[in-house]
């Protein structure tokens, strides 16, 4: 098989007007081989070796699958293994060449354009150790929200990336802009996104509530795709190199004052390198009116408490106990409470709701939260239904006495009924049923007395003698 380089050389020389004889001498190959390659090029437009072209066409069928594997950060070797499981038979060398060609063709920067008021991008950037409100130096980050159209920036220094801090920065940014963009593009921050999945993002519940309150859509960037929020990443780099680099701040107020001055007099008043316009002017002229209006009421942060689910399928809250589905035993759940309800969530999804208890020491339990076998007890309706069916199989009188047992002995019905059913080991169902019939006449539900009826054979006595027997038993 000809090497790719020689093959391409023959086609190139032919395109340059060289004769077949000249080409054969230059590449040191047989003239017939040269003629065959040139014929294939002229008739079919094939300008690469047939084996390479054919194998590439096989891989073309799996291009989307290969892209999916590469998105998951699989190596070329792993991609080759995965394709083999799909029945794709190509050499690793061919696959490696195919992947390198894909990357070469796709290694192009795509510029994302947005309309006025359509999008804001947010990110955090570490800016070193800075004095906090109390004067203590702590790790600090700068929050940046940049409007993608005008490039108007908002910055704020924070000392953690918790969800409450993240949301608070959003609120401050919206107030600074005087409105809300239609979408906010966020990195896969733990404060906002729990699972970095581009197709089915699991939003942190509190951030989701916040976005709904302010009326914007949250768009997470794909993992390892920084170009999708390149505008705000540029903003973070810009402030780090132009404000924080080489500067010292005496206290938090000093940091805030210098930041605000720099934001208004430098950052938003400069001519932007990409738009060639001043962000503040472009914002006031074309974007401010396109932003959504701020809500009339501020977003209220619900109180969220975290608890571990105990082995008894309950969590403790305010000295009362609330059940949780048994699948979450040992896991940490989020609890949101108000004056009436207790809402319990896990990983951003609500798993149960209870009415809030006003007393202490109460167990608020949903029986369905236990495994089915745990619910199958004498107290459960299913258990009673099973024994009712067993008594009915003995006879109609046994069924009636079972109802009477439940009414008279709600705490001990199981033992009495089990005893009556055990009589079937010695006596026929008909005898046990007749004994139950006689017991009904005396309005008794005692297992021992029904057993005595079976043993004495009194179940055969006429029913007319019931009153006499009752009289005699009363007199004695």
CATH superfamily of the largest domain: Ribonuclease H-like superfamily/Ribonuclease H
CA-based gyration radius: 40 Å
Give the beta-strand count. Answer: 14
By CATH reckoning, the class of the largest domain would read Alpha Beta
Overall SS class: alpha+beta
Assembly state of the chains shown: single chain
Description:
This protein is an alpha+beta fold. The chain folds into 4 domains: 4-106, no CATH class; 119-290, Ribonuclease H-like superfamily/Ribonuclease H (Nucleotidyltransferase, domain 5); 304-372, no CATH class; 381-475, no CATH class. It has helices at 4-15, 20-27, 31-44, 50-60, 63-71, 76-85, 92-106, 163-177, 205-214, 230-244, 252-265, 279-287, 372-375, 381-394, 396-408, 413-422, 429-442, 447-456, 466-475, and strands at 119-131, 137-147, 153-158, 183-186, 193-195, 202-203, 217-220, 304-308, 314-317, 320-323, 332-337, 341-346, 349-355, 363-364. The strands form 4 sheets. The chain has a 5-stranded mixed beta sheet with strand order 3-2-1-4-7, with helices on both faces. β2 and β3 form a beta hairpin. The chain is flat, with a radius of gyration of 40 Å. Residues 52-56, 226-230 and 466-476 have low confidence and may be disordered.
């Amino acid at each position: 098989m000809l090497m790719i380089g020689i093959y391409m050389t023959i086609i190139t020389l032919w395109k340059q007007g060289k004769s077949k004889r000249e080409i054969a001498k230059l590449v040191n190959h047989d003239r017939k081989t040269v003629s065959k390659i040139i014929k294939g090029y002229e008739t079919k437009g094939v300008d690469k070796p047939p084996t390479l072209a054919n194998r590439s066409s096989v891989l073309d069928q799996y291009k989307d699958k290969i892209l999916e594997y590469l998105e998951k950060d699989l190596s070329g070797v792993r991609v080759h293994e995965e394709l083999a499981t799909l029945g794709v038979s190509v050499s690793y060398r061919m696959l490696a060449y195919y992947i390198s060609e894909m990357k070469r063709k796709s290694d192009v920067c795509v510029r994302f354009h947005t309309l006025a008021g359509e999008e804001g991008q947010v990110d955090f950037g570490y800016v070193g150790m800075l004095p906090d409100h109390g004067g203590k130096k702590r790790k600090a980050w700068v929050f940046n929200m940049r409007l993608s159209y005008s490039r108007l920036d908002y910055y704020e220094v924070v000392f953690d990336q918790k969800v409450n801090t993240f949301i608070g920065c959003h609120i401050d940014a919206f107030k600074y802009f005087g409105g809300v963009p239609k979408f906010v593009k966020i990195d896969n921050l733990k404060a906002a996104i729990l699972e970095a999945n581009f197709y089915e993002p699991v939003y942190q519940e509190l951030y989701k509530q916040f976005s709904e309150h302010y009326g914007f859509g949250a768009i997470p960037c794909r993992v390892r795709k920084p170009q999708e929020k390149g505008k705000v990443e540029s903003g973070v780099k810009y402030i780090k190199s132009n404000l924080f680099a080489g500067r010292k701040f005496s206290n938090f107020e000093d940091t805030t004052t210098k930041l605000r001055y720099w934001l208004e007099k430098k950052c938003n008043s400069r001519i932007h390198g990409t738009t060639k316009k001043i962000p503040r002017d472009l914002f006031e002229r074309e974007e401010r009116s396109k932003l959504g209006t701020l809500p009339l009421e501020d977003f209220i942060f619900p109180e969220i408490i975290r608890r571990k689910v105990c082995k008894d399928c309950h969590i403790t809250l305010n000295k009362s106990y609330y059940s949780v589905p048994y699948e979450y035993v040992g896991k940490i759940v989020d609890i949101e409470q108000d004056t009436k309800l207790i809402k319990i969530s896990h990983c951003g999804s609500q798993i149960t709701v209870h009415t809030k208890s006003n007393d202490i020491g109460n167990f608020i339990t949903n029986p369905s939260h236990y495994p089915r076998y745990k619910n199958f007890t004498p107290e459960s309706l299913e258990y009673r239904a099973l024994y009712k069916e067993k008594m009915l199989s003995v006879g109609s009188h046994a069924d009636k006495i079972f109802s009477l047992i439940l009414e008279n002995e709600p705490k001990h019905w199981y033992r009495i009924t089990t005893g009556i059913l055990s009589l079937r080991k010695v006596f026929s169902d008909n005898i046990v049923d007749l004994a139950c019939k006689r017991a009904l006449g005396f309005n008794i539900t005692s297992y021992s007395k029904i057993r005595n009826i079976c043993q004495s054979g009194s179940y055969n006595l006429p029913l007319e003698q019931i009153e006499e027997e009752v009289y005699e038993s009363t007199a004695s």
